[in-house]
């Protein structure tokens, strides 16, 4: 019965995907897939689909999410918490592309029998598909797409902080802990994630009595030479440079600041997580960099250490970043909701979406790697507290 239903669903999805591709003018090929060693659409299997950058400059985010989703699915299946029901994974590379590749990846997941979506990983790609997941009635839980617009529809929820919350929390931490008074900001004006954090940071910084001495922007077409922005910050006497940007650009700013003999405090958000793994980057330049994140791999609690150990054993000693931790929580949250609501593999993805959407906003609470007592409001945002970390001796260390 389940297999017949899956075959009918896949046939319909393929036809709809073709129609969508024609109407949207997509001509690029879909991303590569990986079934994580599991069979999508088995008789007692609920298929978790995800997409993110597995190649390109943001690959650390996507690979971390994919790895953690696979690890969490294995842990759920091994635990037997869902009885005879199993989870499986399909994951597509969308290259953090905000247009064709993201939509193509989504359509491929549909074709392969996705029941529930974890993702997408990056904000731009998520914005490209959120209206499709709403139209198609898929429950969507993103680990790391943080723009407010990502959750504009009632089927999509976040495990990460929204951009405004990151900006507000960063300004509050800097002010409340006396980190600095004179602030420079370098942000990507062409990126929704970066601009969203900056706008709220600026408003909260003013309310907290912080002085933004210079605002410096760049775009996706001018993100290799930061000499002008660094010079402006240095000349303005900024004690701290706030970087609501991704780790690749941040590594260049740190390197070019060192060449300019400028050594302020650097402070960022979750996009900086991954800077220690940038190829050919002198990680000693990141010493003392501060950032807000929901996860610190050196935290002493049992759950964190168990996750870090398992992740390192599974993936060649690699230390998981906060994107991986958020993704692990995503799967565990979904599994807990599946168990709570008695969701079975023979249900349609539309019925699963209806049950999961009602349940996650109906008093559900979850203690995970990235927060305790996590709850979700009807607008899709998560309620949890950020953690401040500093890079010390080449690793992340939690701050009070």
Describe this structure in words.
The termini are far apart. The strands form 3 sheets. Strands 8-7-9-10-11-15-16 form a 7-stranded mixed sheet, sandwiched between helices. Strands 1-3-2-4-5-6 form a 6-stranded mixed sheet, sandwiched between helices. A 3-stranded antiparallel sheet has the order 12-13-14, covered by helices on one side. The chain has helices at 2-24, 59-79, 100-111, 123-136, 163-176, 192-207, 227-235, 247-259, 302-314, 322-341, 349-360, and strands at residues 33-34, 45-52, 86-93, 116-119, 140-142, 156-158, 182-188, 211-218, 240-243, 265-268, 290-293, 366-368, 371-376, 382-383, 387-392, 395-398. The model is unreliable at 1-39 (pLDDT under 50). The protein folds into 2 domains: 2-161 and 304-384, Rossmann fold; 164-293, Response regulator (Rossmann fold). A hairpin with a 2-residue loop joins β15 and β16 (395-398). It has 11 helices and 16 strands. With 400 residues, the chain is α/β, with parallel strands linked by helices. α2 (59-79) packs parallel to α10. The radius of gyration is 21 Å and the shape is globular.
Give descriptors for this structure.
alpha/beta, seven-stranded mixed β-sheet, Rossmann fold, 16 strands, six-stranded mixed β-sheet, disordered N terminus
What is the number of independent domains?
A: 2
Distance between the termini: 54 Å
Percentage beta strand:
15-25%
CATH topology of the largest domain: Rossmann fold
What is the mean predicted local confidence, pLDDT? 88
- Helical stretch tally: 11
- Look at the structure and give the CATH class of the largest domain: Alpha Beta
Q: What spatial form do the alpha-carbon principal axes imply?
A: globular
Structural class: alpha/beta
């Amino acid at each position: 019965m389940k297999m017949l239903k899956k075959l009918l669903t896949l046939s319909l999805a393929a036809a709809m995907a073709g129609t969508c591709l024609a109407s949207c003018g997509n001509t690029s090929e879909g991303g590569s897939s990986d079934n994580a060693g599991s069979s999508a659409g088995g008789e007692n299997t609920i298929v978790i689909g995800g997409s993110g950058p597995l190649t390109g400059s943001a690959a650390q985010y996507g690979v971390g999410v994919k790895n953690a989703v696979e690890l969490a699915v294995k842990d759920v299946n091994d635990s037997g918490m869902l009885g005879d029901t199993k989870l499986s994974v399909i994951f597509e590379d969308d290259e953090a592309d905000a247009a064709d590749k993201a939509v193509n990846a989504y359509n491929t997941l549909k074709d392969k029998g996705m029941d529930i979506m974890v993702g997408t990983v990056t904000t731009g790609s998520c914005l490209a598909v959120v209206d499709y997941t709403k139209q198609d009635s898929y429950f969507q839980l993103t680990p790391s797409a943080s723009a407010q617009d990502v959750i504009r529809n009632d089927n999509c929820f976040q495990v990460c902080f929204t951009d405004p919350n990151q900006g507000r929390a960063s300004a509050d931490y800097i002010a409340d802990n006396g980190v600095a008074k004179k602030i420079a900001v370098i942000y990507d004006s062409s990126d929704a994630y970066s601009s969203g954090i900056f706008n709220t940071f600026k408003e909260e910084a003013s309310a907290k009595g912080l002085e933004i001495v210079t605002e410096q922007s760049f775009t996706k077409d001018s993100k290799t030479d930061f000499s002008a922005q660094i010079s402006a910050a240095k000349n303005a006497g900024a004690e701290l440079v706030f970087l609501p940007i991704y780790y690749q650009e941040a590594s260049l700013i740190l390197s070019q600041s060192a060449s300019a003999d400028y050594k302020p405090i650097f402070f960022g958000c979750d996009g900086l997580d991954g800077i220690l793994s940038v190829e050919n980057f002198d990680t000693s330049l990141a010493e003392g960099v501060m950032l807000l994140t929901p996860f610190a791999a050196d935290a002493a609690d049992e759950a964190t250490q168990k996750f870090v150990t398992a992740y390192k054993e599974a993936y060649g000693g690699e230390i998981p970043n906060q994107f991986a931790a958020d993704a692990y929580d995503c799967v565990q949250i979904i599994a807990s909701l599946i168990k709570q609501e008695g969701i079975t593999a023979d249900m349609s993805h539309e019925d699963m979406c209806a049950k999961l959407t009602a349940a996650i906003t109906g008093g559900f609470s979850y203690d995970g790697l990235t927060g305790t007592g996590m709850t979700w409001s009807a607008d899709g945002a998560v309620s949890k507290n950020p953690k401040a970390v500093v890079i010390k001796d080449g690793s992340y260390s939690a701050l009070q």
